[in-house]
């Protein structure tokens, strides 16, 4: 019995020695290999950002990332570990085993949570800003008016996308989307340059786009500015959103040759920027890809989405190329035919009636030359 106990203690001691040796080996490898020594193109491929941007981001977070222990991981490595996880969407252990890092899975987890939380706390509101002042909205309208696919009066294109997550233990059914996957339904608003104006990642996948918009602070802001007299400013969305005086949507099912059809074509072309944004966003930060699943609770998964949104806007600010990671999403503009009389008999009460009058005014001003087509055979 005593011999068996001594053998067990010896095995435990040997395991502790191996762990200490592994820690020393990893520390030596980290000291020898500096990720910032990588060639620029290789650094960009691995981390999706330039060394200069990585260093700026690290400096912004440095005061909260400095470890007390002298052997603690440097803020630079903590930041790069997190960014590489965003970029490739791998599991934590393979991320830590990269030759640049050589850290354990628990260390990767701590780095990921620390850096993601700090980005949300200190950088989200700074880098993702909706135009709230009159001057900012005027600038946004000018940008959409001069865009390759213009839509005058618009300040942003809005849509939602699913981000797959691990099924939570509480209210699991609320996160099952119509594809049968557990997900968040993330609302985004972008300008013609694909710069994020707003990101809302707090809603579960079972909530539809219209519900999220109705409960959005941005809707309240748009309504406030409308009530204050700002009449020719709106967002553009697809048919999943309600028509409102501050949100223009398509008029589907009209035949080619009508002003309604031309209006819808122009709106869909301008709104296509949000589809291209989602393709670029998920292609750049593969942890958000449809083929990946964020293995975290919904709150932290939403924080990861927000952090990737910050990095997306920082990349645009630094004019970093995105061609290698871009995924084209086409918009289907083929629309079945609808009787004009049916559209004219829609509900005409409250904000919707005002919005319909705004739509009519837009079409008269821009497409007055387009003849109306009566689809009634009688």
UniProtKB/TrEMBL annotation:
- Range of residues in the leader sequence: none
One GO CC term on file: nucleus
Keyword Membrane attributed: no
Q: Which InterPro entries match?
A: HARBI1-like, HARBI1_dom
Sorted UniProt keywords: Hydrolase, Metal-binding, Nuclease, Nucleus
GO terms assigned for molecular function: hydrolase activity; metal ion binding; nuclease activity
**Where found in the cell?**
Nucleus
| Swiss-Prot/TrEMBL cofactor(s) | a divalent metal cation
An example of a Pfam family matching this protein is: DDE_Tnp_4
Locate the coiled-coil region(s) and give their ranges.
Answer: none
Task: Tell me the superkingdom of the source.
Answer: Eukaryota
**Ranges of residues in domain DDE Tnp4:** 158-313
Family under the similarity heading: Belongs to the HARBI1 family.
Q: What is this protein called?
A: Putative nuclease HARBI1
């Amino acid at each position: 019995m005593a011999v068996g106990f001594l053998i067990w203690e010896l095995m435990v001691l040997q395991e502790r020695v191996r762990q200490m040796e592994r820690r020393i080996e990893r520390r030596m490898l980290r000291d020898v290999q500096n990720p910032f020594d990588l060639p620029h193109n290789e650094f960009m491929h691995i981390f999706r950002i330039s060394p200069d941007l990585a260093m700026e981001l690290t400096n912004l977070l440095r005061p909260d990332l400095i470890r007390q222990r002298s052997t603690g991981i440097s803020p630079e490595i903590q930041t790069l570990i997190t960014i590489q996880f965003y970029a490739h969407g791998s599991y934590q252990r393979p991320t830590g085993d990269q030759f640049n890092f050589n850290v354990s899975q628990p260390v990767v987890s701590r780095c990921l949570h620390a850096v993601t939380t700090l980005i949300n706390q200190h950088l989200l509101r700074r880098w993702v800003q909706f135009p709230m002042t009159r001057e900012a909205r005027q600038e946004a309208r000018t940008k959409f008016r001069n865009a390759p696919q213009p839509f005058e009066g618009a300040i942003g294109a809005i849509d939602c996308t699913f981000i797959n997550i691990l099924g939570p233990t509480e209210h699991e059914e609320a996160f099952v989307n119509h594809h049968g996957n557990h997900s968040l339904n993330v609302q985004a608003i972008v300008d013609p340059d694909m710069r994020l104006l707003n990101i809302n990642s707090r809603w579960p996948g079972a909530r539809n786009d219209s519900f999220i918009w109705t409960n959005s602070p941005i809707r309240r802001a748009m309504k406030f500015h409308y009530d204050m007299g700002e009449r020719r400013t709106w967002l553009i969305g697809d048919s999943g959103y309600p028509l409102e005086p501050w949100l223009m949507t398509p008029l589907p099912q009209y035949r080619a040759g009508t002003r309604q059809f031309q209006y819808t074509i122009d709106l869909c072309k301008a709104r296509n920027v949000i589809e291209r944004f989602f393709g670029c966003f998920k292609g750049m930060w593969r942890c958000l890809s449809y083929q990946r699943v964020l293995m975290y609770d919904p709150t932290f998964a939403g924080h990861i989405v927000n952090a990737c949104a910050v990095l997306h806007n920082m990349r645009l600010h630094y004019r970093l190329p995105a061609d290698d990671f871009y995924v084209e999403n086409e918009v289907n503009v083929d629309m079945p035919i609808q009787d004009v009389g049916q559209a004219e008999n829609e509900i005409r009460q409250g904000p919707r009636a005002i919005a319909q009058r705004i739509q009519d005014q837009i079409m008269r001003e821009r497409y007055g030359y387009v003849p109306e087509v009566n689809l009634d055979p009688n």
